[in-house]
Amino acid sequence: MAMLGKRRPPRPASNKSGLARQESAKQAPKAETSSEQVLIIERLAHDGRGVGHLPSGKAVFVDQALPGERIEIATHVTRKRFDEAHIRERLSTAADRVTPPCPHFGHCGGCDLQHLSVPAQREHKREVVRELLSRQGLTWQGDIDTLKSDSDAYRRRARLGVNVDREGQVLMGFRAQRSHRLVDIASCCVLVPELQALIAPLRDLLGSLKSPRDIGHIELLATPDTCVVVVRQLKEQPQDAERWKSFAQEQGVALGMRSGRDNVGHDSIDRERIDSDKLAKAKSQAGAPEAHWFGAPPVLNDTLTLAGFEPLTLEFSPGDFLQVNADVNQQMVAQVIQWLAPQKGQQLLDLYSGIGNFSLPIAATGAKVHAVEGNPAMVARLAANAHRHQLPVNGQQADLNSRESVNALLKVIPADAVILDPPRGGAESVCQALAKLSAKTHQRPRIAYVSCDPATLARDAAHLMHGGYRITRVVVADMFVHTAHMETLMLLEPSV
């Protein structure tokens, strides 16, 4: 970090082309003068970085800078249209700046808004939604409510990378921001307490292994009934198996081991929803092995407890998509039910349904639900969950990124309302098909759209607006406190 913002000396030229490069470097434009390195931060970018402008008018994105602050910067990336920088010295401090609660802030790549007060974080997220809608020519003048949890310790799943440095020290933690470098952590304040309690024992265990270099990463998952630890090892190490087995017994966790390289896995700290269909297909093609469990494979359950309903238990597999914040997820389900107010006998279409997060609670109202998911294994689990509770849910596997598949689906399944809960890529094919259906037949079911990327939500909402819909409600779900990520809920209804 000491060299960030400074020009590195040129390497000695060893040949003619090297001399040419050195001469070219001498003729390159000089760095901005010191008088141009003092900025006033004007706003926050969507990713939470501060934005200011040099006297030349060039925009600068500054890590950990807040609106209203006057700062001296050090530029570490220079681009044609903008620069990227970090704070060299803060000359004034914003009223919303707070002390980050995590000792790893600034090094770990997660939770990069800890220096901003939580109320200000939520206001920033609401403004991001408004701005992205505006970019699509959509104006929302109404309120944007916020769904939130009372606890910052919200993450019930995470993936810890493991590495051994040149000195032989075992590192365990998350990636640095915009880097593959692993940041060693001793704690993580956003994990649920059950997972926080596993960090120290895992560190001790890794230090005792004969072959810690063969551990790629460790996946953690907390359910109401148990904690699950899945270890990815590059190859089997029988000499360490007993240590892992003892760890599982001492900590009372379900332990699974996967051997071999996994080039298609995901890092749960990235706060990104994974397209489960593509992920499952990629793992199948790559021949990714199933986990070997110490003891019987665990039966994992998620429980939805909603006011006015009996608790619903959803069985799932460790590889299935599951919202990381259980409290906010339940609030989202309740919000969608309130918006759609399903009645007995009504037909609802739940697209990107997963294991039944929305399908089962809505079916519990008496409505008939047709649930569509791309991953066939998750469709099977959804069907089993519905059967267990004797709920009227019909599950189907289909590629919702295919216009032909979506058009065929909408032709044969009329719906009074539609729920969309897609991955980050959004539901463009579905929204285009719904808009086209609306223009041709004037069939306009109410739509509850749950999005983990407000940019794709705004794009898809524009398609629906052109098809005769209007936005009637918008809510931000602060699913990932201390980060710039969010879930956004939108209700769209026929404009006439």
From TrEMBL:
Q: Which sites bind S-adenosyl-L-methionine? A: 323, 352, 357, 373, 399, 421
Q: Which InterPro entries match?
A: 23S_rRNA_MeTrfase_RlmD, NA-bd_OB-fold, SAM-dependent_MTases_sf, TRAM_dom, U5_MeTrfase_fam
Annotated region (Disordered) at: 1-35
Q: Name one GO molecular function term.
A: RNA binding
- UniProt entry tagged with the keyword rRNA processing: yes
Q: Which residues form the active site?
A: 452
The processes (GO biological process) annotated in the record are: rRNA base methylation
Q: What reaction does this enzyme carry out catalytically?
A: uridine(1939) in 23S rRNA + S-adenosyl-L-methionine = 5-methyluridine(1939) in 23S rRNA + S-adenosyl-L-homocysteine + H(+)
Q: By its UniProt entry, which Pfam families does this protein fall under?
A: TRAM, tRNA_U5-meth_tr
Boundaries of each TRAM domain copy?
30-89
Listed EC numbers: 2.1.1.190
Q: Which NCBIfam families match?
A: rumA (TIGR00479)
- Mind telling me what this protein is named? 23S rRNA (uracil(1939)-C(5))-methyltransferase RlmD
Natural source organism: Vreelandella salicampi
